[in-house]
Amino acid sequence: MSTDKVRSTKLRFKGEKTKKKRKREDGDEASGSSRRRKRDEDEKDPETWVLPENPNEIRGPTFIVHPSDPSPICVNFDSTRNRIVLHSLDKDWKTEDSETPSILDRTPTEVSQVWVTTRVAGSPTVNLRTGTGEGKFLSCDAHGLVSADREARGPQEEWTPVILPDGMAAFMNVYEKYLSVDEVAGGTLQLRGDSEEVGFGERFWVKVQSKYKTEATEEEKKKTDGLHDATKIDETSTNHIYQAWGAGRSVTSVEDKKELKKARKEGRLAEAMLDRRAKLKSDRFC
């Protein structure tokens, strides 16, 4: 019997650090169910592939799958031929002993099946860069031709992801047209970017790694908490903004003017009395 260690088939990317799993303590069995669920979430593998719930969670390594029939396909990049390839996922499951997984259970098995999603902070658009080769950006021209042969990003390399009610996603380009899978002569499938509406061909299942989804959730939480923080109100500037005419001239009534004059007069009297007392004290010690 061979004692060689079984090699993991899990896809890893260059530069990623492995996270050691935390062992459970003996007393964990007695803790409540809510605490156990919280611990399970904390111990969840950050490299697990999950579905994003909003467009902001589409970031980092991204797996894009289309539910084509009879076999689902994923959007690949062939770095040798420098072109996009729609790869049938069923080709990866040819063994008779293993059951073909559902489309939602699919995960990438090659780096060529992974795109790296980046975005400018605060921008609704993303850039999709190949995960293999020299890093080319997915782009679409005004005629709907989709390619991945540009090393620099521009308007044609920008995509706006849209999460649909059923959890699937669509990608809109700068021309407000949608990315789609189109069948051409001979039954060959290719990507296009000139669809006016979202139909079956424009819907994709998108998966990202759990740690990037968590990162997006934490950023959104910080942003929301910041909006709820108490803000300081400058009464003077507020009055000038909402109760002023011309160059910041405050609007006051006749009664207000009388009160202001009275306050100024009383203030001057008080200052005079203080000055008088200070002078008397200084004279006393001289």
Walkthrough of the structure:
Strands 1, 2, 3, 4, 5, 6 and 13 form a 7-stranded antiparallel beta sheet that branches. This protein has a two-stranded antiparallel ribbon with strand order 7-8. A two-stranded antiparallel sheet has the order 9-10. It folds into 2 domains: 38-222, Trefoil (Acidic Fibroblast Growth Factor, subunit A); 243-285. The chain is α+β, with helices and mostly antiparallel strands and 286 residues long. It is built from 4 helices and 15 strands. It is elongated. The chain has helices spanning 33-42, 210-228, 235-242, 254-285; strands spanning 49-50, 60-66, 73-78, 83-88, 114-118, 127-130, 137-140, 146-150, 160-163, 169-172, 178-183, 189-195, 205-209, 244-245, 249-250. Residues 8-23 have a biased composition (Basic residues).
SSE layout and pairing:
Layout: H1 33-42, E1 49-50, E2 60-66, E3 73-78, E4 83-88, E5 114-118, E6 127-130, E7 137-140, E8 146-150, E9 160-163, E10 169-172, E11 178-183, E12 189-195, E13 205-209, H2 210-228, H3 235-242, E14 244-245, E15 249-250, H4 254-285
Antiparallel strand pairs: 1-13, 2-3, 2-5, 2-13, 3-4, 5-6, 7-8, 9-10, 11-12, 14-15
Biggest sheet descriptor: 7 strands, antiparallel
The percent of residues in helical segments reads: 10-25%
Number of strands: 15
First-last Cα distance: 109 Å
Strand residues, percent: 15-25%
Region (Disordered): 1-55
Protein name: Protein FRG1
Biased composition (Basic residues): 8-23
InterPro entries: Actin-crosslinking, FRG1
